[in-house]
Amino acid sequence: MVNHAKNAEAFNQDEARTNWHDETLWFVREKRDKASGQIPEWEALRELASGIKDHTLSKLDVYLEEFEKKATENGIKVHWAVDAQAHNEKVFEILSDHGVKRIVKSKSMLTEECHLNPYLEEKGIEVVDTDLGERIVQLAEDTPSHIVLPAIHLKKEEVGEVFHNRIGTDKGASDPYYLTEAARQHLRQQFLTADAAITGVNFAIAETGGIVICTNEGNADMGVHTQNVHIACMGIEKIIPRAEHLGVFLRLLARSATGQHLTVYTSHLHKPKEGSELHVILVDNGRTEQLGRPDFRNSLKCIRCGACMNTCPIYRRSGGHSYGSTIPGPIGAILSPGYDLEKYSSLPFASTLCGSCSDVCPVKIDIHTQLYKWRQVAGAEGHIAGSKKRAMRFMGMVFGSPHFYRKVGRLMRRAARFMPNKWIYNRRNVWGKSREIPPMPKESFRDWYMKNRLGNGK
Amino acid sequence: MRVALFVPCYIDQLYPHVAVATLELLESLGCTVAFPLDQTCCGQPMANAGFEHVSAKAMSVFIDNFDLYDYIVAPSGSCVLHVHEHIKAPDSSRPFSDRVFEFCQFLMDVLEVKELPGSFNQKVGLHESCHGLRGLRLGVSSELRKTPYSKPAHLLSMKKGVELVPLTRWDECCGFGGTFAVSEEAVSVKMGKDRIQDHLDHEVEVLTSTDMSCLMHLDGLIKKERIPLKVMHIAEVLNG
Ligand code: SF4
């Protein structure tokens, strides 16, 4: 069971670090604001992207089969995986067929979701993450805390320390240029000595049977071009109908993610290069189930830009790890309960429902509305603590009866006025830990109104 | 114009002067205001905590009290949003979303107020409540790429003497969030402290908002730390 509140409280023990984390991500949000502000038709573009995704989800089976057909004609080997295990087994099967001992892997949230790395490592295959952020996290034996910026929770000094211990950079060195160059040299070696490449997929186009991969470091291309076996892993929701739709998403993706106009590398792959193999694995892993939930299906429109994390005032002040799920932040909080409601039932409550995520989302997912709806599911299915449940039942009763409401209100105000402070600010008064309780006036508004407008003091 | 005043439960019990200011200003703008005496709460506190199903009675009390009226006004964006989204009027051709107004929304859209009586000589910081801003669209949030405007800011600029102070993160959430304030205490408090600091950095004297619930949370922090910053509901500022 993930207890977000507890994890968040631990994160907040170090206030200076919380401030640093908040400001770092806010800076990314501001870059997004600037970049999106340069597109006069930004809101129309979001609407269009949302519409294309809605349409695609309504005919997902049709487009997936069209993709399979076209991709196969192009010479791509297409596989289907019903869940994470089937996906991992398929990857292993392909790798074993080629006697692969070591792979280079560019960023793929899907393989994180399927826990591919530990699976392959157990089978004796070494996995080298080649995205800089992911490599940092891997060398630190940590997990990503953000889907676009996996190592955003680490300061450059901490990265320097990890690199010193693992790849031999100078002790105490924290200059980002120096560290990046060291990582580059280190990764070059990995690219040259690996046996296969694994990548994620940002978009798969039904019409052409091609896939598109976006990176800033060119590491996916390095893998693809140096290896003779390339496995591209994708969730089935990554499909878009036509090549002409790509422009809509590419214009939104990088601007929303980091405030860049476009990712540095946008690679279009349509067929394997000569003498090599290109495999695409289409993974379901709970997506069809989510598609079958009318209230939550449009969470599958997500293009994994990370903007909802950068904008979320709670994510910025609790860190990605506090969500305890592969995908953190607002989108993670509506996807994870779909996999395991009991385990992730605290995530929909890690929000004030401020709605910033829904307004920032380039594909207009109504994230905060879905958070609200997951809360109702959690409440109805008994995933909320008994004490809270009893309190809510009581409130339901109070507000259900005007007479009882007035009585309870009067009693509460009177009691609070006469109670000594140390009774009020006791251990169980969580509100009062850092906040004073509100004033407790003698009169309610209704009392005032009766006296002053109806001329009756009752 | 005849309007019904919907006073959220916590304003009725804890901040009666806010409802008085709302009532007085509506009256001085020429409205005949009724206060249905058996109103309680819209049910939001339970619903946001995942217990919409125990709020059915509260909702029917709301309907009993207000269904009669064509204009219903409340000094809270959050409660109004909840009514819009979750309380179904018995006659579907008269949905509450057409009839229930947040106070500033009513002044701007229905009364089309062009000037306000009196003056208020202070440096004012406006806390845009999320449910008002992004829920009721009382303004354009900073995420959207649309021509900026804000109904509460516009009304404040109408008030003589008000110096409206620009803030750095002018529409970031204060961290109240209903039961969130207690169940996620650490983050809630941190968010509140950060909002307050933004106002202090810009030398605000009076922090105002369309929602008293945000202000209850912020004022709790302000009072505990003895910070020299006053909070007032926007109805009090506009009526001042
Ligand atoms: S939910 Fe929207 S904002 Fe969040 S990662 Fe997905 S596309 Fe981006």
Give an account of the 3D structure.
The complex is a heterodimer of chains A (458) and B (240). Chain A has 22 helices and ten strands. Chain A is of the alpha/beta class and 458 residues long. Chain A has three domains: 121 residues, no CATH class; 232 residues, 3-Layer(aba) Sandwich (Rossmann fold); 68 residues, no CATH class. In chain A, the strands form two sheets. Chain A has a six-stranded parallel sheet, with helices on both faces. In chain A, strand 5 and strand 6 form a beta hairpin. In chain A, helix 9 packs parallel to helix 10, helix 16 runs parallel beside helix 18 and helix 19 packs across helix 20. The longest helix of chain A is centred in the first third of the chain and has 23 residues. Chain A starts with a helix and ends in a 6-residue tail after the last helix. With 240 residues, chain B is α/β, with parallel strands linked by helices. Chain B folds into two domains: 108 residues; 117 residues, no CATH class. In chain B, strands 2-1-3-4 form a four-stranded parallel sheet, sandwiched between helices. In chain B, helix 11 packs across helix 12. The longest helix of chain B is centred in the C-terminal third of the chain and has 17 residues. The model of chain B has no long low-confidence stretch (mean pLDDT 97). Chains A and B meet through helix 1, helix 2, helix 17, helix 18 and helix 19 of A and helix 1, helix 2, helix 3, helix 4 and helix 8 of B. Bound molecules: iron/sulfur cluster. The site of iron/sulfur cluster (SF4) has 15 residues of chain A, from helix 14. Iron/sulfur cluster binds next to helix 14 of chain A.
